[in-house]
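Cross-check.
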Amino acid sequence: MTRFVAVVAAALCALSLAAPAGAEPPTRLTLAQAVSIAAGSNPGVTLAQFRAQEATARVGQSRAALLPSLTAQATMVDRTYNLYSLGFSLPSAPGAPPYAALQGPVYDAEARLKLSQPLLDLASWRRLHASQLGVLGARADLGVTAEAAAQGTALAYLRAVRADAVARARDEDLALAQDLLSLAEAQLSAGTSPAIDVTRARTQVASSRGALLIARNQRDRSRIELARTLGMDAAAQLEPADTLGAELGGSDAPRSESDAVAFAIEHRDELRGEQARLAKAQAERTALNWERMPRVDASADWGNSGEHYGSAIGTYTYALAVTLPLLDGFRREYRIAEQGALVRESEVRSKDVRDQVTADVRNALLDLASGVEQQAVATERLGLGLEEIAQATERFTNGVAGNIEVINAQSSLVRARDADIDARFAVASARVALARAAGVARNIH
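Predicted model, tokenized:
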């Protein structure tokens, strides 16, 4: 039964490794390349770019309230009137019949140009300033989205690199198990080892093959996840070019707490976005207050007017209007109160974001320090595991002990390899978290 399981596992492993004929080689990506692609073309980043364009368009809409307005109009009117509906009752001459109620038709043809220009509109000027601050907020949001996309892609890349490392470790485990099986069979042939040792060794080979199948499946799944974070088709063939090295996931973020916090406060787009939204809310509140101020508009109207276009004569109108709002049912006051609440809300949010930035930096530094310590322990553990498997193999070869010691040492080595990979992954992930906390995730390498 054990031999059957081993044969089936080997067949499945061979099938999983078979590549389709004519398949294109995978594209190798470094972490820096993946982060750069995600920060520029991730779907979330693309949508944020559109929102920034919308904010820029709103600036033009706000500016339009301060620019001249010119319209052209041509009309031709043919109209009859009911004198009684207009309140007219004209006396008629003695002996003459009374005027008919229906009068007309009256013809009127006009072609006119109308120009208007605000001369003083403080509220519109303030709204223009508020819309410009909205652009700053939208651009900051674009930066936040790009940073989040860069972090998400970096973590997906690290998971893919980790999956590669696990697959390679399982390859090494399988090679070791096959070597130990050969040793057990040789010991059995020499009469220095019982058959149970060979059975145990075959079980380890089957187990290693099964673990290798799982590891390669996880590796392939991690590459699909990486393609999706990059905004690519899931069928895209990608392969990480980096390994879980000592500096993978590094950035320009400082490593000391005080420097990192100051650096993050200067570089985090979340803070700039909240500051821009606070300034925008304050500008909109000021615009509402300035609606109480007088507004001055100039207008001009030129055109030809007559019974027919051919007999029309030129007419014009020039006007200068001053408008002073007095009462609108207290609607403006309630709008100002609402905007004041929005300002206070934005102030609270700005403070909370600043505190969160500090917390993010400190958490990332703690994780990084802990990860470095765990990596040192894992490296020592891996070295001891290699020593243990070497000593157990030597004892088994010399007939001092059965291969149960070898099996136990092999299991310890598998766990030590996993712990080493996990520790290196944790350190790289902490570097990525620190870069995101400091606002430089787009510079991860």
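Confidence is low (pLDDT under 50) at residues 1-22. The longest helix spans residues 122-190. Passed to J.P. for a second look.
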